[in-house]
Amino acid sequence: MGNDQNSQIQKLNSECFCISLDQQALRTALASQTSTPDLFEMLQVRCPTVFAARPVFVSPRHMDRMRELIAAIETVVAMPSYQAHVLGQAPAAAQKNTAARSVFMGYDFHVTAEGFGLIEINTNAGGAMLNALMARAQHACCPAVAGLVPPPAMAEHFEAAIIAMFREEWAVTGHDRPLRSIAIVDSDPDEQYLYPEFVMFQRLFNAHDIQTVIADPSELELREGRLWHGDLAIDLVYNRLTDFLLESPANAHLRQAHQTEASVVTPHPQAYALYADKRNLVLLSSEEHLERLGVSAQTRAILLAGIPQTRMVRREQADQLWAQRKQLFFKPAAGYGSRAAYRGDKLTRRVWEEILAGDYVAQALVAPGQRALSDGETPEILKFDLRNYVYAGQVQWVAARLYQGQTTNFRTAGGGFAPVYPGPLDGDR
Question: I want to staple 257 with a disulfide (CB 3.0 to 4.6 A). Which of 139, 227, 317, 361 is the partner?
Answer without folding.
Answer: 227
